[in-house]
Amino acid sequence: MTAKGTRQWMIVFLCAAFVLAAATAGAQDRKIAVAADGPEIDASISERTARAPFILFFDGSGNLLESVENPITVDRRAGHEMAEWLAVEQVDAIIGGAIGPRMGQALAARQIQGIEKSGSVREAVKDVLE
User: Fold this and answer.
1) Is residue 53 part of a domain?
2) Is pTM beyond 0.85 here?
3) What is d(CA 16, CA 18) in angstroms, rounded to the nearest whole number?
């Protein structure tokens, strides 16, 4: 093989390795929020997504990063406020029991995926990451 051919194969190999590394890193950099009725991973998903008592944050591997009391206390525009807060927290998706149309629009405007689920937080996160 010529030096030019070797160089071309090396470039192709490096590009493929870079693409694979970027795809793997992207999945692990993912941050998911879950609206929950309690602060633990075995809590139930809250039916009231924007007004859930707790928000749990997970990484792209399903590891619990943090559990916080929901800071959104407004009665009106709670979905909009939640979407703004999640954008600041750099969340890629939120799992909740019910995501209304206004909250859905606010999430979409910030490139945050809204996922409606019921059951336990643990199972919902596992299901979303599969």
Assistant:
1) yes
2) no
3) 5
